[in-house]
Amino acid sequence: MTALYTALPPYARALDMTFVDEIDGVPVIGMPFADRVQGRPGFLHGGAISGLLEIAAIAAIHQALRAKGSDSNIKQVNVTVDFMRGGLNQMTYAVGEVTRLGRTMANVEARAWQEDRDNPIAMGYMHYLIKAKRAG
Amino acid sequence: MTTGATNIETLAPKGGGFDPALVNKLMGKFGHGGFLNMEYVGHGDDWVELAIDWREDLVADPDTGILASAVIISLMDNATSMSIWTKLNEFRPQATMDLRIDYLRPSPSGQRVYGRGICYHLTNSIGFVRGYAHNGNPDQPLAHASGTFIRTGGQTA
Lengths: 136, 157
Prior knowledge:
- The complex is a heterodimer of chains A (136) and B (157).
- Chain A has a single domain (10-131), classed as Roll (Thiol Ester Dehydrase, Chain A), CATH 3.10.129.
- By secondary structure, chain A is of the alpha+beta class.
- Chain A is built from two helices and six strands; from the N terminus they run H-E-E-H-E-E-E-E.
- The model of chain A has no long low-confidence stretch (mean pLDDT 93).
- Chain A has a six-stranded antiparallel sheet, covered by helices on one side.
- Helix content of chain B is 25%, strand content 36%.
- Chain B is built from four helices and eight strands.
- Chain B has helices at residues 5-9, 20-27, 31-36, 69-88; strands at 39-43, 47-52, 59-61, 66-67, 94-103, 113-122, 126-134, 141-151.
- In chain B, a hairpin with a 3-residue loop joins strand 1 (39-43) and strand 2.
- The interface between A and B is large, with 40 and 41 residues.
- Strand 3 (73-83) of chain A pairs antiparallel with strand 5 of chain B, so a sheet runs across the interface.
């Protein structure tokens, strides 16, 4: 997967996601409210929130791999998303946290919030396979 | 999160019931469902199948053309949500509580993705759902889903 540090992938750009900040060196991704991310009228679609969590998780794992000097690829195995609050008509932020980075797999958590990071609107829990690039 | 009461209720067929094909004209053509251009494929007593065409701007990894994981989440969210109303044979307001997706394999570049949502149990408050995504052959799924929806209104005392 192309390093998320330099450019967000087409899916993220299509939903207007941008790098807005860093927390402890980990990118914070922002996503503005718009019709294309809306579910029931006035609220974010759960899939769009999940998309923001996914991009934040991938950004966090790329950052963690880079910090280790690794150029390994990643492959997502699964994700569980808990939806805690309805996403309102405002900017949404997300940041990932790599809770464990091993040789073969990584556990990542991502948190999405609007006004207050301590009141998340959703959390994502992801497992990724770490795949070393083959020489030659 | 699902499309809400006001709009969907206006689509209730005369004489009651729930028509997923009709409701998808709203959920699949406006908002996030419209962005993904979700199409109605079919339904049974307790299931609804929807589909999304591969598109370059839905890709998470430009090197491989593999769709963003969340595209599958959105597809399964809508299909499982509609499976609850289909099983109930009426609309009730609800929100996604949680959703888990296991990715058995990537969805190949250029291929349409189908998502079948199944409601396997209903209580007064909770809809229990599962489902799977595939590229046209349900015997070769690319992802499995399971989750729960919570009723957000219209409760009888």
